[in-house]
Every structure is written in structure tokens, then in C-alpha cells.
Design a protein that fits this description.
The protein is extended. With about 80 residues, the chain is mainly α. The model has no long low-confidence stretch (mean pLDDT about 90). About 75% of the residues lie in helices and about 0% in strands. About 0% of the residues are buried. It is a multi-pass membrane protein.
Amino acid sequence: MLFGVNFVAALVPVIVSRFIEPLKKIFTPIITGSVIALIGISLIKVSVINWCGGEKAEDFASMSNIALGRAPSGLSSC
């Protein structure tokens, strides 16, 4: 079953790739860039809440939560 699922999943990009060139005329870099930027901007609130410990955290925005959230972003910026 796993082999079959992987086989079908591998066919999806092959089929979709046939329609990329015509779609490039519709979805210009301005449109795709704007959509990606808006998605990122809309996720800022969610990421800040999770970074501070989550909505139900008793110690919301404590230094331990902020330090724990800062560690991966600090490591990825190296």
C-alpha cells in the first residue's frame, strides 16, 4: 500500500508540471510574491503567540518561553 501511495504521489508533480507554463502567464511574479507576503504577514500573530508560550500558558511571555523560542531562530541565523 505504501508503494502505491508513493507511486500516485510521484505522478502528481508530473501531471501538474504540464500546466506550469500556461499558469506563468496568469500568475506573474508580482501576484505570487504578494500572495506569499500576505500569507507570511497573516502568520505573524500565530507565531508570536506560540513563541510566547501559547494562548493557554499561565506564564505567557515569560523569559523562559521567549528564550526557548529564540534559540532555534538564533541557530538558524548563524
